[in-house]
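Exercise 4. Each item below gives a protein and its sequence. For each, produce the structure-token representation.

Item: Transposase (Kiritimatiella glycovorans).
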Amino acid sequence: MSDNSVLEALGQVEPSAAGDVFRDWLRGEMRTLIADILAEEVTELCGPAYKPAGDRGCRRAGGTRVGLRIDGIDEEIRKPRVRRHEADTSKEVRLKSYDAVNRADDLRDRILRATAAGVSSRDQKTLYPDSAPGRSRVSRAWIVEGRQRIQKLRDRDLKSERFFCMLLDGIVLSEDLSAIVGLGITLDGRKVMLDFEIGAQESTEVCDALLDRLVHRGLEFEGDPLAVLDGSRALHNSVLKHFPRARIQRCLVHKERNIKRCLSRRHHGSVSDLFKRLRSVEGEEAGREALADLERFLSRHSHKALESLHEAGEELITVHKLNAPSTLHTTLTNTNCIENPFRNTRAKIGRVKRWRAETDQAERWLAYSLLRAEKGFRRIKGYRQIPVLLKSLGWPSEAVEASLRSALGPPGHPASGGNGLHSTTPHPQAESEANCRTGTGQVNDKELHRNEDRDRQRVSTGFGTSPQAGPPHGSQQQEAQLWYRAMGIRT
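Answer:
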């Protein structure tokens, strides 16, 4: 693509696609440049084409296709081959220019990984004494890489995902710099980093900016969404402003932490036991009983702790009031899905001594760290029970069926096509940690590839069995009970 043609192409595409067109052109120019450099070295070794210099002892020997990483993308180029005659034999000559090009890109990747792991740009010479560039070049490379990660995170099309739950939490970077991070959970139980917003504090303006961008990118819910928040009033107001029908679940971990600050240390064990019971019980009645026991305990020991409990009110048992299976409480009653990536993020950014609010420094570090943490995400514990929760939230039956089918298949690849449950994340997430440990959650190929007509028939007839036939047996028993409960069929 010539300079004129790339300018014409840039003028014909949308602004959002202009970057891709330019990068494609730039990679093409780099391939041409590399080919010219290789050809120059071959000419030095063998002389001009068709005019070989016999006294140099080298001759051209064709070429071969080789892989080369250009601008972070694997490309294929033609590498010329040269052979040198020695006595009665000949051997291939290693092209120094090819080794240099190959090593340069590999070195860049290693330096970026070292920077992300906490090695300062000044100390790169210690790791790579013979080849590391100066600290200014390392810093510039890191800036470019960080901005690419920001774009990668914010260019995701959220319309292609079907979310039922959103978690929002904040991370303090410094005294005057904070970040609010959003994470979504799909109908098949995958966790997806949505976006983040940097601000001086967790203010309503910062929350609105984050949610405005998410809505603009296509974040929507087919029924009442579940929103798990850390307790910030700004987050609470902003979520209800953008999603008025959202069901708010307050993070029990944050509330437990706040209540313990109001109590003597000798009462912390009892509070932990009461919150553990609150997280484990299932159903609205049991949830109210556990909350009442916690309230009675606090009323005897601390008025301030009791006020903290009353501040959250029944938002502490929103998931219980929806009669969600207790297996989902591990994930949906707290913001640990975000806190855990924050732990990894803090390990990456702990060496930053001064955050520059006037630059995109914080955005670069957060984008890199959060995307890195996302690679280790698993499906949430109890993801097979999500259809039951969707039924309680009043979601349409089609969404409940889609969630149910996807629970039977690999993450991001539902049993029946056309329901928008494919993943936008670069790495498919594995089974939930609990299922990996116990070996459960495995289904055979027949179960994974049922067609939609058969699925609907099973829903309408009670898993496809006649009253005379009785409930299914064997390997279908667990799946049948899940269908029964999700569709409200009494057994």
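Check: The chain has three domains: 3-133, 153-374, 394-486.
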